[in-house]
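Title: [Solved] adenylate kinase 3D structure

Original question kept below for reference.
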Amino acid sequence: MATGGSTNLEDVPSVELTTELLRRMKCASKPDKRLIVIGPPGSGKGTQSPIIKDEYCLCHLATGDMLRAAVAAKTPLGIKAKETMDKGELVSDDLVVGIIDDAIKRPSCQKGFILDGFPRTVVQAEKLDEMLAKQGSKIDKVLNFAIDDAILEERITGRWIHQPSGRTYHSKFAPPKVSGFDDVTGEPLIQRKDDTAGVLKSRLEAFHQQTEPVIDYYAKKGAVVNLHAEKPPKEVTVELQKALS
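Solution (posted by the thread starter after getting help):
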């Protein structure tokens, strides 16, 4: 719906209004939740976050997307971020926390949020907690998608894609009929640049060095829930619902 008073509610189809009203009534009874999802690439955060978001009426804050949106919208913080990125520098932690601070004041974040991609370091976690404390709130739960590196390697390096259609295969879990070729067109499959063992190894090293201390930091506050991320997605969803109920 457009903002700035340009949309007259009389012009909004009844079905849309009713759907939104019912959603808000259902959401009103849900407890507020402020969550962080943490896990290495391929651990299933992207599969589970939309499920939790809908179930608890939260907003999903993926910091990479938020930075891009702030830059595109030319918000004061977005302009600052763009200047930094144009110089080839990393956007400061304070700036990212500022963008999160702006975002959680939106109506869609009224019942809370799922933070994804931040904090990646203990310093970032401390800054985030400071900002929330000023608003009289704190992180309720840190959902740690715990999974063995070896399982991840098998999961990720086995992924193959038919680029024109987006059809995905997995050499072990969902192999094509003919190895290396798309079932429908017979065209060759490719592997994404990020899905190779070398790239995964460096991403996992960064994760263990920087982000695992964040899990310890929140564990000391009693906020961490360890999930068995190697299980099938439906079982992980059940675990999550138990942890959050």
